Amino acid sequence: MPRSRRALRLPWLLLLLALGACQRDASPDLLLLISVDTLRADRLGAHGSPLGATPNLDRLAAESIVFTAAFAPSAHTLPSLTGLMTGRYPEEIGVRNNESAVASSVPTLASALREAGWRTHAVVSNWVLRRSSGLDAGFDSYDDTFPQLEATRPMPERIAADTTTAALKAIQTCRAEPGARCFVWVHYQDPHGPYQPPQELRERFLEHERRAQDGRRNLPLLDDFSGIGGIPNYQALEGEQEIAFYRAGYDGEVAYLDREVGRLLAGLGEDVERAIVVFSADHGESLGEHDLWFAHGEHLTDVQVRIPIWLRVPGRPPERRGDVASLLDLNATLRALATGAAPDPAARGRDLLASGAAEGASSVYLATLGGSRERRYGWIEDGYKFVLLYRDDVWQGQLYRLGDDDVDLAAPAPQLAAALRERIAEFRERMPQVEPVVRAEPLSEDDRANLRALGYEATETGTAASLLRPVGDPLPVASGCEQVAYQGPQTALYSDRPYRTAGVVPALEGYSFCRSHRHGQEVWLFEVLRPTAFLTLASTSHQLEQAGWKKLDGAVRVEAAGVVLDGLYRYQALPGRWAIDSGHARTANPVFWRPEDVRPIAPSSAGTTDR
Fold this sequence. Notes:
611 residues, alpha/beta, Alkaline Phosphatase, subunit A, 2 domains, 9-stranded mixed β-sheet, 4-stranded antiparallel β-sheet, 12 helices, 25 strands, globular
């Protein structure tokens, strides 16, 4: 007797239910976001590099959705990663440089995932990402331990090997919690300069780099960090000036990074099969293109803002996609993957994995923000990049095909250039005008002791707002000046945490301070208003000139604390208010000098004026 139709259906129904249960059990419960500092996409084999430096990353790319035209919003770490974590352009939430902060009111990817029940952990190795950056919002744990100092300046960092070890510990801790879904963000500092990979890795690439046409050429050593025309002071190692030495160092750093990412992925064990793995970078690095050497932040060229974006998602086949993507898009994409939620209406990114997304493209806004001698804004659309820059008191436009930053098409294609220029104007006009957000920096006991030694008392809250507050009652604020306390950790008042700067006045009782924003240029100008004293400012000469300050004739010398600095110049904004070009990256922060420390010097000993 034949079985009933119902009886025939039952085994299949049970099988489908069982398969569904298995799929649910195997659904991704680990989201690993790996971001890398200062990583050029073209140094990866998956993006065409012939160096063979990245076998582990290339294997990851072979299993991933690889975006070949992906861009960061800026060539600076905090602004760029702010875009990833918030889905918003840094300017519109008050993040203008690496010493800004993300306001606590701004939703982040971590806070959205935590609200959806994910456990959230971060391990960061770039000091600008310390928890005062605001990017710690939404994380259950935020490991910002920096056990090392950079080789050429006392800037705290964590090398890649220690980063991997800390990341594996964070993952293990989270996975030990039964049923936990884990979001872990790992940010590697390598290959950020100074380039100091294991020696054998530099040597591995040195002869290859010497075969380049300019590989054996020597560059001048600069006394600033710009990299324009020479080797930045923070990159200079052992007096080396050969181009190939530094390029091979960068290549070696990339190979070192690859080794550590390979160790991280291997450490996941069986978890890797059901993990979402995302790989990207905050920005790139110029290795001599357009005469910018071993630096970033000055231009909006591909080598500085083109980045890898890879998504390895269980159940989705690998592919290579050419539609333009932005680092901001990762916010919407990861929210959708992890929570199924629609994009945040306040965010700008698109879901890169949504149905039909491959047929679309992102329009990308770029900005150098406070990090360039010439202000630059950019717009990417329909296979072109338009760059608007302020030079010689005039806004100028440059038009390039994507992937070719050498041929300016603005003259032969004026209508297209005008249309993209208008896109920038319209976008910036709609962008909310938000004051820069400054950090509330917690003070350690060492910081408090340093302040007390300088004649200051730290407040109970222990934030940087107390740094410029003398003991006793403050003086009245001068008219026409907004009183402000310096809100950054790199002030001379920190002594050698992390910078040691010369000429610090032992006590500042009776000093009053103000800030200025001239011509809309975001240069923080700190002026001592007492007639007999002055204060240098967190700026170099090009920023002063952009802000409308007039350079006075005659270089000056500062002799203080056993240190002599030549070739500095005075600038004047208003009668009776003047300041000094700090002149050096290591003193590109407010540094206090007494008037008697400053003396005119002969022009022949003035040093360079092109800072």
